[in-house]
Amino acid sequence: AKTAGRGAYRFYSHEQTSSVRERTSMESRLRKAIERGELRLNYQPQICLDTGAIIGVEALARWSSPEFGLVAPDKFIPIAEESGLIIPMGEWILDDACRQMQQWRQQGTAIPRVAVNLSALQVQRGDVTALVRRALDSTGLPASCLELEITEGYILQDADRAIEVLQQLRDLGVSIAIDDFGTGFSSLSYLHRLPIDRLKIDKSFVQEIGSTSRAAQVAQAVVRLGKTLGLSIIGEGVEHPHHADALREWGCHEGQGFLYAHAVAPDQLHLLAPFKRKP
Ligand code: C2E
Ligand code: CA
Ligand code: CA
Ligand code: CA
């Protein structure tokens, strides 16, 4: 926690005084939120577009604050990243997701994998492999049930180092997905060298499917690229049946989005119906 405090100080020294105060108070509230157990993980299903079966769930953090109500991760994850709080928070997230997944398995819920978001700061730290191994060991979850989602931005910062870390993670037996793919100005020169399993097409592209916009063409190009590289592809932000139909036609067989379900509390997951598509 002390290291996090120092990191925060460095960051805030570049900011305006008023926003410093605001951020610092958010940070200390967030710190307490972790201690008080106000953070929760909700789970959004990932769907096989051919059969409608749930083939995975993505763990998405929620902060239920007595003071602010439900705070969206877009609000508190950036603060956690800038302050270094994402390190203890991310450790809790990883543990909790693995524990939950293992519990589902023991209850006989047939969900093949859980996807957990790793922030760049977590991966840059040397010990992310040890962190993941510990989470698997302590919960008993088989590595093959865990997928880690990492954004492109991180990889571009230092591709050689990223490749090394991703390989170590993959050696544990977990799978790796590149999140928000297409938004990070991917360099095709490194993509084929990355030890990864899946590309996650960013929702901004998926949502343009059916329009004449270039973004829709990017979605199709990503599917083609992924197939060429022998990677799995999942489309996120699938909101309309025609998004799913187009993805499937192009050869992307996995999707995630409000068309199927929002992220739900773990005890609600069993209530979700199988997502059959219309014939
Ligand atoms: P993400 O990893 O890209 O997660 C997908 C986001 O898209 C989620 O928002 C999800 O609720 C939303 N989404 C899913 N389907 C649809 C759809 O059909 N339409 C639209 N418009 N949105 C959809 P959420 O839960 O608010 O999370 C936002 C971001 O916060 C995540 O983006 C991720 O970057 C970050 N985040 C969330 N949980 C964690 C976490 O546990 N660790 C880390 N490091 N980051 C997290
Ligand atoms: Ca994600
Ligand atoms: Ca994403
Ligand atoms: Ca995102």
Automatic annotation (TrEMBL):
<protein>
    <submittedName>
        <fullName>Diguanylate cyclase/phosphodiesterase</fullName>
    </submittedName>
</protein>
<feature type="domain" description="EAL">
    <location>
        <begin position="23"/>
        <end position="277"/>
    </location>
</feature>
